């Protein structure tokens, strides 16, 4: 590339990357019994060999190939496009993916095609931020309110939030932005841990030659959870690292939920904050009934008590459990429209945005703004691979530009697979340290991409 040439996307590579985490049932919960933390991963290559855009969407193993094919269908649209064309109008760039008149039929704005959109849009943000030599959060924090609003697609949400209202929210925070940025650089963003509370049984029964649970795992899987000793040890370790918020998986076996809630409460003390996550296992009334036995342990919230599509069901559960506990959801909320309804229906107390279930950074910006308007704290989801790396940027954007508060807000942290990233997250005294490397922190090490590529990577061949 010569000095005068514009940075232009010239080709892309899509990788199906799977980590066999189900072997130890890390990451498991009442619904996801044997997750293999995986990434449908894209690299945009440019005419500058030193500049690449990386993005991914998180999956649980089988089906990653479906997201990879959807990524291919979208990525091809960006070949031979100069980066400056994409960044001059990020709303339009987002709409290139969400508004394709044929691909739209397999969404719209939901499911595998939307997960793929998340990967592609995030890769473009990564490329832009690397080009600007800034982390993504800083690229956005440095935008004027007008530039911020220009990234957002307001289609289908103007009945809840107009562009003018969004502008007012951002303008009101403009004068104090710099001081919040300094505070974040100094103290980082407070985190909570899920790593002590996975539901997976430690001893694994019945595996085939590739190390997978046979019969899809479920038939031979007992919901007994990590051993009590392991839970105690992990709680103590997390406490020693400075964590004060802990999440426990529930919804497998009630007696074991109660026993583990008691021991976690004992370990974290009355001042520690306990959260519970049911991963959609219950019907509406079942959620209300089951929680009665867990309320004595004073959970801050119950996460994903039922189907993510059931807006009114969440509202019913919230009303029934109020004021004893609150309701959180978001990791499976498919787009800004369902978030809008959850807010309008007063169905949730915490908004758990997921960085690549929705269409990446642009749609997240819309959801942050709506959450602010409805006064709902944003507590991002990060259980999975790469999600901690992504969401640290989003919480910084939320605090510095949008919500302007960290009260009642914590960012999820899980201690898995960070070693595979070039710029892994750093946790200090129970907080995320603000990332300073250029990009979206999602660049995976080449060796890891090759080793864990499915089905031909070294790890899958030798297992
Ligand atoms: C399969 C995954 O690990 C989920 O259990 C995880 O995302 C979880 O719901 C969470 O809140 O972190
Ligand atoms: Mg969850």
TrEMBL record:
InterPro entries: Enolase-like_C_sf, Enolase-like_N, Enolase_C-like, L-fuconate_dehydratase, Mandel_Rmase/mucon_lact_enz_CS, Mandelate_racemase_C, Mandelate_racemase_N_dom, RHMD-like. Residues 228-324 form the Mandelate racemase/muconate lactonizing enzyme C-terminal domain. Pfam families: MR_MLE_C, MR_MLE_N. This is L-fuconate dehydratase. It catalyses: L-fuconate = 2-dehydro-3-deoxy-L-fuconate + H2O. One of its GO terms (biological process) is amino acid catabolic process. Its cofactor is Mg(2+). The keyword Magnesium applies. Keywords: Lyase, Magnesium, Metal-binding. Its EC number is 4.2.1.68. It comes from Absidia glauca. GO terms for molecular function: L-fuconate dehydratase activity; magnesium ion binding. It is an enzyme of class 4 (lyase). The keyword Metal-binding applies.
